[in-house]
Amino acid sequence: MIKGHGGNIYELARRLGCETSDIIDMSSNVNPLGPPHGLADFLRKEINTVTALPEVSAERAVCAFAGKYELDPDLVLAGNGTTQFIYNIPQALGTRKACILAPTYSDYADACIMHRVEHSYSMSEESREFKPDFLQFQKDIEGADTVFICNPDNPTGVLIPADTLLSLCKSHPNKNFIIDESYLPFVIRGDAESMLHCGLSNVIVLNSMSKIFRIPGLRIGFLIACNKKAIEKFRRHMLPWSVNRLAQEAVIYLMERKAETDAFIEATRFFLETERNRFSEAFKHVSGIKFFPSTTSFMLAVLLKDQTSDEICSALADDRILIRNCSNFKGLSERFIRISLKTAEVNHNLAEKMKRLLK
Q: I need a surface site. Which of 58, 148, 245, 309 has the fewest CB within 10 A?
């Protein structure tokens, strides 16, 4: 069973005796501008297609995704979210020992635990604003055959430049590097930082549709490799019909409308940049909290006085606002929270409420 995830909107709604729609969920890292215009109407028209099986390996969706990103479709797999691939990695790669760049998403460790694979962590430190120390990181990955890197990272929002990653992966050709780019679409000029076209046989890239297009309920993600040998390792662990019919159609709809999709992503990036700056500025003179620089839709903060994340999260939850308590991230503590930005009005209202709560 997955452990370590954040706010549960269904549980909070039951506790408060309200509908989930009554709760402002700022714990979920999805695009506040999404889903893209027209997608919901398109899916309503396609609803009757669920009476037939989807394509067994989502072939058309794979081709549409590969076409947009100029990839060989034979080097792309579609799955039931990137989660499916994360939990397949230890088996598919025959991992004996993994190293995880942390603090980060808990599923990398949970996948290792599920398959009884030894794993360790290389910790990025608060004193460096969670930017990795690559001299230490290279020491930490000695002995590991699989390395997990979320880029940009969840929950810190730190982005590792592509040239740094490229150098790292080239320096360790006998290690498999899993680069999870689920949040990269939120980054200004993020396409230039992708490892999709790195050409390295020891690199596996994960790409999520859930976050940027705000369709987590459809469950659609992609795994991209640089050679067929690596893809075949994963293909052996794929279940037929892993991607449902509506998810497949959504991918085709979005990928074939390249100009509209690119414009949507670009608008999202600049909206979030404005909101990150505005939200941080609201706390400029508040001594009880510090927000760390972020490149994504979410912002990590540390509480600087004697309040805990549980106290702040509980007080906001009573007001039907859900934020992420980060105390269960490896390497963080009861002093850390994460805010996922929403509309300008919602962000402003949260800032005002938090300033009243902070001592």
A: 245
